[in-house]
Amino acid sequence: FLSHSLQAKMSRPVQARRLEGIDKNIWVEFVKLAATYSKVNLGQGFPDFPAPDFLTEAFSRALGGGSHMLHQYTRAFGHPPLVKVLAQFFEKLLGRDLDPMTNVMVTVGAYQALFCCFQALVDEGDEVIIIEPFFDCYEPMVKMAGGTPVFVPLRPNPPKDGKLMSSADWQLDPAELASKFSERTKAIVLNSPNNPLGKVFSRGELGLIAELCVKHDVLCISDEVYEWLVYDGKQHIRIASLEGMWERTVIIGSAGKTFSATGWKVGWVVGPDRLLKHLRTVHQNSVYHCATIAQEAVAQGFQRELMLYGKPESYFVQLPKELQQKRDWLVQSLDAVGMKPIIPEGTYFLVADISQFKSDVPDVPNSDEPYDHRFAKWMVKNKGLAAIPLSAFYSEAHKNNYTNFIRFCFAKEEATLKAANEILQKWKQEKTS
C-alpha cells in the first residue's frame, strides 16, 4: 500500500517549464564522441599547451607560501586584488575612471557572467537580438530568463577573385539588423571576436549597432572573451568605448581565454553600477563566490601584464603571434586537401567549407539531422579527427542554410596540428587514388 501511494505522488511533472526544449547540448554529444574515437581533437575550444609559467607559478605561490586566508572565502563579488587590477587595466582600455567595487564583478568563468546578465536584465516577453552564428549558450540562457531570442545572421559575401574567404567577408545587412529592433527589444548580444567564425567587428559595424542601441534604448551584452586574440594587425574595438554605449553595456571577459587556463573558470563583467548591481543580486543568490586562489593567481597575472602593457614580452602580445602562426598552418593544411578554410581575424577557431568532401559521407534519406552533424560524426569515427558542426551555432530557422561548414580549434600544440595534417593528407590520397 505504501509503495503504491509513493508512486501516485511521483506522477506530477518534475521539470520546471523554463527548461522545456533546451535540454539538448552539442558539447555533451561531441565531447563524448571525441573522447571515444578521436586521435586528434580540434573540436572543443581549449588549448592543449600549458598556461604561461608566470601564471602557474603565481598559483603555486598562492597555494603554498601565500596567506592561509587564501583557502577561505574572499569578497563575494570579486577578490579585492583582482577587481582592483581589472579596474586599472580597463581604465586604460576604455579611457575612463572605474570603481573596482562597483564597476567590476568576478564570476565563475564567462559562462556564469552571461547567465547573470540574462537573469538580471531580461524579463518575460523581452526580446534579445542574437547575431548568428553565435556561441550556443546564448539562446537557452535567454529562454531560461523568459526572453525571446531574435536572430540576425551575418551573411557571407565570397570574394570574386577566387581567394580564400575571410571572416571579414561575413557581414550584417544594416537594414535587416535595424528591422529586428522594436519596443520589445531589451538587449543585443555582441560577440567580437566572434566564436565560431573568428570575425572581428569593424568600427563601422560597431557604430551601426551602437546607433541602434542608443536610438531604441537597448542594452548591449558584449562577450569579449577573445579580446587579445586578434591577428594580421587587426584591432579589437570595445563597443563600450563608443559614444552613448558605456551606460548600456556589460563587457564580459575570461581569464581562461586570456591566459590559456580554461579550467580555472575565472571570468568577469565590467560595466556601469546601474547594470552591475542587478548582476550582483543574481550572483549572490546563485554561485555567491568564486575560488579565491584562482582569483589571486589571475590578479598577479594581470599585475604583470599591466607593467608590460604594449611591450613585446607581454603575454597579450606574444600569444596572438603564436596563434596566428598556428592558424596559418591549419589554413594551409585544410586548403591543400580541398576543405576551404574561412580565414579568421581573431579567436582560436576556424570554419571550413566541407562541400568537396560530401561524397565521402553516405547520405541518409529522410534524415532531419543537419548534414554537418552527420559529417562531423562520420569524420571522428572514421578518420579520428574531431571538429564541431557549424549549424550548432545557428537557430532552428537558419541552421539548414549553413550545413556545409565545420569548426576547428587551432589553439593546439604543434604536434597536434601536425597529426591533424597527416590525417587530412592521408584522406586526400585515399580520395584521389
TrEMBL record:
<feature type="domain" description="Aminotransferase class I/classII large">
    <location>
        <begin position="39"/>
        <end position="420"/>
    </location>
</feature>
<dbReference type="GO" id="GO:0030170">
    <property type="term" value="F:pyridoxal phosphate binding"/>
</dbReference>
<dbReference type="InterPro" id="IPR051326">
    <property type="entry name" value="Kynurenine-oxoglutarate_AT"/>
</dbReference>
<dbReference type="GO" id="GO:0047316">
    <property type="term" value="F:glutamine-phenylpyruvate transaminase activity"/>
</dbReference>
<dbReference type="GO" id="GO:0005829">
    <property type="term" value="C:cytosol"/>
</dbReference>
<keyword id="KW-0032">Aminotransferase</keyword>
<dbReference type="GO" id="GO:0005739">
    <property type="term" value="C:mitochondrion"/>
</dbReference>
<dbReference type="GO" id="GO:0070189">
    <property type="term" value="P:kynurenine metabolic process"/>
</dbReference>
<dbReference type="InterPro" id="IPR015424">
    <property type="entry name" value="PyrdxlP-dep_Trfase"/>
</dbReference>
<dbReference type="GO" id="GO:0016212">
    <property type="term" value="F:kynurenine-oxoglutarate transaminase activity"/>
</dbReference>
<comment type="pathway">
    <text>Amino-acid degradation; L-kynurenine degradation; kynurenate from L-kynurenine: step 1/2.</text>
</comment>
<keyword id="KW-0963">Cytoplasm</keyword>
<dbReference type="InterPro" id="IPR015422">
    <property type="entry name" value="PyrdxlP-dep_Trfase_small"/>
</dbReference>
<protein>
    <recommendedName>
        <fullName>Kynurenine--oxoglutarate transaminase 1</fullName>
        <ecNumber>2.6.1.64</ecNumber>
        <ecNumber>2.6.1.7</ecNumber>
        <ecNumber>4.4.1.13</ecNumber>
    </recommendedName>
</protein>
<dbReference type="InterPro" id="IPR004839">
    <property type="entry name" value="Aminotransferase_I/II_large"/>
</dbReference>
<comment type="similarity">
    <text>Belongs to the class-I pyridoxal-phosphate-dependent aminotransferase family.</text>
</comment>
<dbReference type="GO" id="GO:0047804">
    <property type="term" value="F:cysteine-S-conjugate beta-lyase activity"/>
</dbReference>
<comment type="subunit">
    <text>Homodimer.</text>
</comment>
<dbReference type="InterPro" id="IPR015421">
    <property type="entry name" value="PyrdxlP-dep_Trfase_major"/>
</dbReference>
<keyword id="KW-0663">Pyridoxal phosphate</keyword>
<keyword id="KW-0808">Transferase</keyword>
<dbReference type="Pfam" id="PF00155">
    <property type="entry name" value="Aminotran_1_2"/>
</dbReference>
<keyword id="KW-0456">Lyase</keyword>
